[in-house]
Specification:
The chain is of the alpha+beta class. It has two domains: 98 residues, Up-down Bundle (Methane Monooxygenase Hydroxylase, Chain G, domain 1); 238 residues, Alpha-Beta Plaits. Helix content is 48%, strand content 20%. The strands form two sheets. The protein has an eight-stranded mixed β-sheet with strand order 2-3-1-5-4-9-10-11, sandwiched between helices. The chain has a three-stranded antiparallel β-sheet with strand order 6-7-8. Helix 1 packs across helix 3 and helix 3 runs antiparallel to helix 4.
């Protein structure tokens, strides 16, 4: 479909939605109004840009007409200046429209569940997993997003074998989704007496939270185990069993939570994780059908697979997907991630624009 036809279709749908929201029988249905408003807001940017583009085109035609007719020299000069400014704006609008017409990820506004696991590298990998958790927590704090730990398996020296946490905030998935993959660190461990640089890795998986409508789970598909939460030394941290482990029998997927003192709260959090994992599996399978082969989100956790390298001796972070290297490691580990995330997002957008142009 040509861009002009797509724009006409979108504008017609926008007007249709506006009219429906004004109908008396719809106005009294709160859920219906919300659904219509949500769809309308998704079209608003494109419609606004398209309408401004049409106004600019009309103004251009008028200015060019003045120039072609000749007449008053001062008026022609003003028209030429206006043509230059309008043509510049027309190019800007065309570029903005191309981007606005790119397919949106419907999950972008969702809360997320982030899973960080130590990979190759022993205790150093666990310490690096803890560094990544702090980095993401601070990034979320900077954006006024809320974080909550679901479960954590500590190493005993300040690291994590695994830590799973939630991030609640509008647009959380649109930013965190670019963090999925293998992260590699190169540094001299504190226990290293000869100053040798060690390489370790941690894997990050980012799952958008799913609701019950998208992932329906029958009670008979679940096995729920209740146990005592324990510290890294294996000691029970409370006398009442409140930790919850839920197994989805059809798939074997397991989710657990022991961070809350309430068994009910732990169960809710564990179900959120389970639902997100099942939703992610469903999306991955759908994408596999389109792509022809399913790609694992974080690989095997080996040293050879990586999306980003954090080199402490050189104060350097390199994102291998876009070839970007930055030299301010302390700030990045303090959550100043926007430059890295923006670079990957821009690269993905460029690929989509290229695909769109080839259609």
């Amino acid at each position: 479909m040509a861009i002009s036809d797509r724009l006409a279709t979108i504008e017609a749908r926008y007007e249709e939605l506006t009219a429906q929201m004004g109908e008396p029988d719809v106005a009294t249905d709160h859920a219906r109004v919300q659904a219509l408003a949500r769809e309308r807001s998704q079209l608003e940017e494109v419609v606004g840009l398209h309408r401004e583009s049409q106004k600019v085109s009309s103004a251009l035609d008028e200015a060019r007409s003045i120039v072609s007719d000749g007449g008053d020299a001062e008026l022609v000069e003003l028209a030429n200046e206006e043509i230059e400014a309008l043509e510049h704006r027309q190019r800007e609008l065309a570029d903005q429209l191309k981007r606005a017409l790119l397919p949106k990820d419907p999950r972008d506004d969702r809360d997320v569940i982030v899973e960080i696991r130590a990979g190759t590298g022993g205790d150093e990998a666990g310490l690096f997993a803890a560094d990544l958790y702090r980095m993401y927590s601070r990034y979320a704090d900077d954006r006024n997003w809320k974080t909550a730990i679901v479960s954590a398996n500590e190493t005993g020296i300040g690291g994590f074998k695994e830590i799973i946490f939630e991030v609640h905030g509008e647009g959380a998935y649109s930013r965190f989704k670019y963090e999925s993959g293998v992260h590699r660190v190169q540094r001299v461990p504190q226990t290293e007496t000869q100053g040798r640089i060690h390489t370790s890795v941690a894997t990050v998986a980012v799952l958008p939270e799913a609701d019950e409508v998208e992932v329906h789970i029958e009670d008979n598909e679940l096995r729920v185990d209740i146990y005592h939460a324990s510290s890294h030394g294996g000691q029970n941290v409370q006398k009442v069993a409140s930790a919850v482990r839920i197994t989805h029998l059809p798939t074997g997927i397991v989710a657990q939570c022991q961070d809350e003192r309430s068994q009910m709260k732990n169960r809710v959090k564990a179900m959120n994780v389970l639902r997100a994992r099942l939703f992610d599996m469903k999306v991955q399978e759908q994408q596999a059908e389109i792509a022809g082969a399913r790609k694992a989100q974080v690989g095997t956790g080996g040293r050879s697979e990586k999306i980003r390298t954090y080199n402490f001796p050189q104060d350097r972070v390199t994102d291998h997907r876009v070839g970007l290297t930055l030299h301010n490691l302390p700030a990045l580990l303090d959550g100043k991630l926007d430059e890295l995330i923006d670079a990957v997002a821009t690269s993905e957008e460029a690929k989509l624009l290229e695909e769109q142009a080839s259609i």
